[in-house]
Amino acid sequence: MRTGSEPVTARSPLRMRFWFSVWGLIWAAFGTVAFALTGRTGWAAACGALLLVVVADLAWVVHRIRQGPHYQPGRDVPPYAPPHEPPYEPPDAP
Q1: What does the H/E/C string look like for the chain?
Q2: pLDDT of 4-56, one tens digit each?
Q3: For residue 68, is it left (φ>0), alpha (ψ between -120 and 50) or beta?
Q4: 12-15: long-range contacts (C-beta < 8 A, 24 or more apart)?
């Protein structure tokens, strides 16, 4: 049983970030194609650059999701104990 101050039902926002990245991927791809077809190369390049950023973010999120929960402690791991040292006090000035 955990006794720390962290919430027991905490969830990682990676799934939400995954779906936001998919949404951004769709719109960036649509914007790139639409602006390229209308001859607005500057806007198409901007959407293309945004598309690359979204793809990189999506790849990172998928990588982290596939790593699984191995880096998160389970319920049987107790929280960190508070430090037993007294707080630092600067020496008295002469």
Answers
A1: CCCCCCCCCCCCCHHHHHHHHHHHHHHHHHHHHHHHHCCCHHHHHHHHHHHHHHHHHHHHHHHHHHHHHHHCCCCCCCCCCCCCCCCCCCCCCC
A2: 555 555 556 888 999 999 999 999 999 999 999 999 999 999 999 999 999 99
A3: left
A4: 12/72, 14/61, 14/64, 14/65, 15/65
